[in-house]
Task: structure prediction
Amino acid sequence: MSDGPTVIIDISVSLDGYVAGPNQSLDDPLGVRGEELHEWVIATAAWRESHGREGGTEGVDSDLIAARVERTGVTVMGRNMFSAGRDGQGWEDDPRAEGWWGEDPPYHHPVFVLTHHEREPLEMKGGTTFIFVTAGIESALEQARDAAGDKDVLIAGGANVCNQYLGAGLVDEVHLHVAPILLGGGARLLDDLGANPPGLEPISVAESPKATHLAYRVKRQVR
Amino acid sequence: MSDGPTVIIDISVSLDGYVAGPNQSLDDPLGVRGEELHEWVIATAAWRESHGREGGTEGVDSDLIAARVERTGVTVMGRNMFSAGRDGQGWEDDPRAEGWWGEDPPYHHPVFVLTHHEREPLEMKGGTTFIFVTAGIESALEQARDAAGDKDVLIAGGANVCNQYLGAGLVDEVHLHVAPILLGGGARLLDDLGANPPGLEPISVAESPKATHLAYRVKRQVR
Result:
């Protein structure tokens, strides 16, 4: 994994390990209280600037957001994160469907969507193109690495997709932004990693009143 | 909860949220790789000193151990933590049984053991007395608070006991020592907290190469 782009999981998580709250639905894709996971993000100047707004907080939270945006060349996500859970209802493969990210998604680079529905790429405003991959996580990662240039590949979610990549030994770094909340249920990160999960090596710890930022390097596995 | 002793969960946990690894047994009470959770502890000068040994590392890890020992007046634990899983086999209520902590347990204060087996208190060497409580977690906590004087009550584990106290809104602070490991299974902390888990407020973050120390105040719940 040392050659080519760095493959990164970078995600906000509750102290009890959830990246979305209970009862996720079409109307509530982050589940009950799931939006609180991202309060540290939307407060930052970096996030506000990337969304055309002024103001926001400077500091460690904002610096981390800015660095991640700068370093990410390609994003990989699951079908639910693209379509807000409509997969399997004949919606995602509707060529008119544009996911739930709006006409100008906040990625501005290629986004590989893991799905069971073959579909032509979907080019959005602002440089985001959704590319649908039906051949599995390894194929999606291979395509993502080829498209990333000298930047990083971000495994964006959801929990299940992150867990699959991590359990398969395909991730180089895990960056967790721990929000000071307990959700009590929902989509659990770092779950179902198999009987022999990879080793970790701490990279850094940073804190703000809104989140604690923990970064780890994933040790190369001998298989 | 603001009057009297502070009730604290203070426990080592893997990044994936386990306080013991998979396949816990009589011979392996911490489960597969569970001992790695405590490597940061046994490396410290404070821990070594409290166990009659010389050497060990100074610094944040050692300071935290020393402060916790100093502040803890009473410990509460589950039956498995006392007896290494022998409860229900007619062992724990055997008046000859001394748990698995040896004849001079490392507590040196009253330890309340949650159990279904009535039993006389068990006085050990070095000031540790195991007191067996069959009337449930609230009764055990009440007795523990009465015995704590001006020190803290430590909810020591296992995961199930910590989760019950936290879910019931009976904990004032949660101190997690996150070891840089993934266990992939075992006894999960911060689980089964119910539909309305308590709020948190960050107290402090500290780090060493061996663990990241996260402390939170539990917000008083309106019930």
Summary: The first strand of chain B starts at residue 7 and ends at 14. The two ends of chain B are 13 Å apart (CA to CA). Chain B touches chain A at residues 15-17, 22, 174, 176, 178, 180-185, 190-191, 193-202, 205, 207, 209, 212, 214, 216 (CB under 8 Å). DSSP finds six helices and eleven strands in chain B.
